Amino acid sequence: MDNKRSELKKIIMDTKTLPTLPGVVNKLNSLTENDKASVQEMARIVSSDQVLSARILRLVNSPSYGFYRVSTISNAMILLGIDVVKCLALSTSIFEIMEKNSLGLWEHSLGVGVAANLIARKLSLPECEEISTAALLHDIGKVIISLKCSEAEQLIRGAIQDHGMYMRDAEREIIDTDHAEVGGWLAKSWFLPDKLSEPITFHHDVAQSGNHRIKTAVVHIADALIKASGFGDSGDCYVPQIQQIAWDVLKFDERLMAEIIDELEDKLVEVKNFSLELQGSDISVD
Amino acid sequence: MQKIPLMRATAGMVLARDVFRNDSPVGMPVCGRHTVLSDTLIARLGNLNVTTVYVEGHPVWEDGDRSLEEMLVELDRRFEKVRNDPLTLKVYEMFVDHLKRSMGDSGGQQAE
């Protein structure tokens, strides 16, 4: 059992076997280390890859961020911050796979992004955009598992169907790790900042999150709310237990939660439309 | 709340969201939420090329639409593993309330 886990970890940490990283990201990485690089300069680099820019702008204009009509990469960088744009550039290949192979998971991720953004804004938390991004990415581990262990994935799906298990439990039983941990490995191998990798790694176990517990708590609750509303398909249909520590760390109260549930439905209609539009007008620029 | 084609809208329905020109999510709304639709208003919206509106409750039923009862059964199933957890149960009850309010006999209007 343990072999599988380390084998999988090796595959993931070896970036060569992962979906291609846009070359632009490397250029961007070397630029951000140089403090003098201006946003314009960085935007120019990203814009030089038109497919990538189109995909980033599409995400930036998704309901998960709530901006709409961001039409240039430099605007996106100013509004969302360079970290977030870089992270979206890194994840475009994963999102693309999600969109093509598992629309349900894509909708689930967009939904959690929207719910997290809603919670963060209601609670006036700092770094809303980072929270939305972490929420969009929280299940990337599932994409990697289905890409790299397709046989095991069939077994996992079978176990969920036959025994009514949580996906996470089925993963633990079959590959001795779970999508949260796998997502965390991926985030590390991409050198994502802790504020993004922690919520991905610990969205099922908020207490483990040390430095970014608030962000992790938001993603945890957003995930539970989206599963409760039955939006998208994250692999199993069961609402996870909402952890008391997440509720406490965000100082949630019932009135606020009721407000969020009401507003969420409104937003989910938008997400559904966004997802339908994407499928309809699929920008197959490649 | 339900999204319906303007053609299916009838007088007496209540807008659940602001209506914008050309389905644009930004800019000035042409008609605010909570407005009660009238025949004249529907005709005007049609003249502005509005094609769909969001209305309160669930006034238009199509094949395949789920009733409140069906939705509650599904909700129940999704929460079946966490029914013993007091905090998650509280959230479950909020979802039940929400569904009843948005699909309820009152046409989905919130009692304020």
Task: Kindly summarize this structure in a few lines.
The complex is a heterodimer of chains A (286) and B (112). Chain A is mostly helical and 286 residues long. Chain A is 71% helix and 0% strand.
Report on this model:
Chain A has a domain at 2-18 and 101-280: Hypothetical protein af1432, CATH 1.10.3210. Chain A has helices spanning 2-13, 23-33, 39-47, 50-60, 73-80, 82-101, 103-122, 128-137, 140-148, 150-163, 167-175, 179-189, 194-202, 213-229, 244-249, 254-280. Chain A has 286 residues and is mostly helical. The N and C termini of chain A lie far apart (40 Å). In chain B, 34% of the residues lie in helices and 12% in strands. Chain B contains three helices and four strands. Chain B has a two-stranded antiparallel sheet. Mean pLDDT of chain B is 83; it is low at 105-112.
